[in-house]
Amino acid sequence: MQLSAYTRSIKDILSLKREYIIPRFQREYSWGQDELTVLLNDIIDNLKLNSEGFLETTDYFIGSLVLAGEDDKDTKFNIVDGQQRLTTITIFFSVLVEIFNSYRKTNLVEATQRYIEALNDDNEAYLVLVNENPKPFFQFRIQQLEKDDSYEPRTEEELSMMNAFIFFKSKLEKDILLKYVNKHYSLNLDSDDQYIDLLKIMRNQVLGFKSIYITVKKIDDAYLIFETLNAKGKDLEAIDLIKNQIFKVIKDESTGDLPKERWKEIRDILLSREEKLSFKQFYRYYWISKYSFTREAQLFEDFKKKIPASNESYKDFLKDLKLGAQDYLKISCPNSSDWTEMELKNIPDSLAAMNIFSVTQHRTILLSLFEGKRKGIIKQKYFLEIIKLLENFHFKFNAITSSRVSNIESKYSTFARKIREAKDSNDIIKIVEEIKMFFEANQPNYSTFKQNFMKLYYTKNNTSDKKLIQYILRKFEKYYQGTNELKPSNLSLEHIMSESTNEYRIGLIGNILPLDKELNSEIGDVGFIDKLEGYRKSNYRTVEKFIEQYGDNEVWSIEDIEARTMALSALAYNDIWKI
User: Which residues does the UniProt record annotate as the domain GmrSD restriction endonucleases N-terminal (predicted)?
Assistant: First the structure.
């Protein structure tokens, strides 16, 4: 491997009439406020006052920049290391350009923009930094002189870029910046001209930053350096190393840029709904669902051991990973449109419940379950039974008692791999029984469940349990109906004893009924007898049950609230969420 190394300033680097390309194997832009603050402080704090009392620049080393390309002939260089810094500097300059433009400093606009968008020998414009992933957002929303605000950030990377732009724009506002610099250097800058001069000095300080400029000739060497620089996973996620490994091996030009397109398709799937799903989390659950239980730090090494490094095996892996992403989306962001069969129409509710419980480990088992159903290995009966078991267990285990079992993630990985290895229904029946036995052994006992169930609480001023209580009341309603015909979609929470009562226990679930919003509003804040008359108009079986039991009461007491809460806890544990 042949290396060339020079000491160059950022100004030198960005003035070489070269395109610096952030290639597909690179990690996404991820700098947050901590890193941005450090860079901004380094810019300002390394200025110095000269003998005449004016600020001037000083030398500062910003780190190495490793590139793939031949110095003597190439005009396009792939960035191997340093893309986070170059991207951030580009964003910083873009903010400066916007400020200079707002003050009608045309010369400064043009002088600064040329480090973002330059001219080649044919007087054609080109972007100095080219990022292959967040196109066209980075190009049109950040880099161009005339920014197009119609481009909204869609991915985590684009959001990080937008946040960096907003960060610099807020920190470089005149009043904020001058206040900081005046205090830091005991100055008294206050005019527009002094403000613009300060921004120009800060720009020059960045342009003067020194870097070790390292180039290698071959892109294969770039991949090797990329992996070597991050051999211990330091500063790089396992998913980035895996991506790099796949892109390095697949080189069949007849397929076009297949790995890049497949990777983008997977990422787009995970970002296609309102809740944006983490590629990193998806990948780990997918891996431990199919291959082995592996800690995050070992994912890359495990990948290299278990997936042969060949075109075909990596293509097959990406194809399967995409199918897994489609299943993961349905599991994590449930939508009724995913389930058109009548027998499966309650699946989205069960999956959505897991999000209410703040549970994600179950996705490991479900990834295997979904694949098994898709391949026809798992019958619908067992598909539904496992999902029901998961919902019931995690309601008791997580939502109510916040319990912990140290081996649950590894156990789920084992169950998931057994599901994938099942040959027929007999194998699936055995696995269902294993899962049921595990849940029976690890579910909290009734005493613990009741104690925590009776702590569920909702008032207008204390809403942390609201979604969970709404979920519970929907499940009670379904149980009382004995059918799935009526789904309470317009459910509001009615306090039987009014919230205006100065009594803590009004927020307990025993004091809450489900009502249609319109009826709830119609009843209003009245006495118990009058409320009962209003409740009789409700179509909810839960309310009918309440009237059957308490309709002859003249008052609704604290003792009634506690007794009903306890009764609901027993019904929940023994019947509705029974394992």
Answer: 10-247
Closest C-alpha among 266, 262, 259, 264 to residue 245: 259
pTM here is: 0.70
Q: In angstroms, rounded to a whole number, what is the distance separating the alpha carbons of residues 209 and 225?
A: 24
DSSP 271: T
C-alpha–C-alpha distance, residues 182 and 191, integer Å: 12
- How far, in Å, CA of 488 to CA of 155, rounded? 34
Handedness of CA 421, 425, 430, 436 (dihedral sign): positive
What percent of the chain stands above pLDDT 90? 67
* Per-residue exposure over 61-89, b if at least 16 CB sit within 10 Å of its own CB, e if not: ebeebbbbbeeeeeeebbbbbbbbbbbbb
Report d(CA 143, CA 117) in Å as an integer.
Answer: 7
Residue 213 forms beta bridges with which residues? 6, 65
H helix runs in 460-557, sequence order: 466-481, 517-523, 528-535, 541-550
- The residue with tokens 């539904």 is 384
- Farthest CA pair distance, the chain: 95
Asked if residue 288 has pLDDT above 80, the reply is yes
Give me the mean pLDDT over the 125-150 stretch.
88
> Tens digit of pLDDT for each residue in 215-263?
888 766 766 666 665 554 445 678 888 988 888 788 655 545 678 788 8
CA atoms within 13 A on the CB side of 34: 1
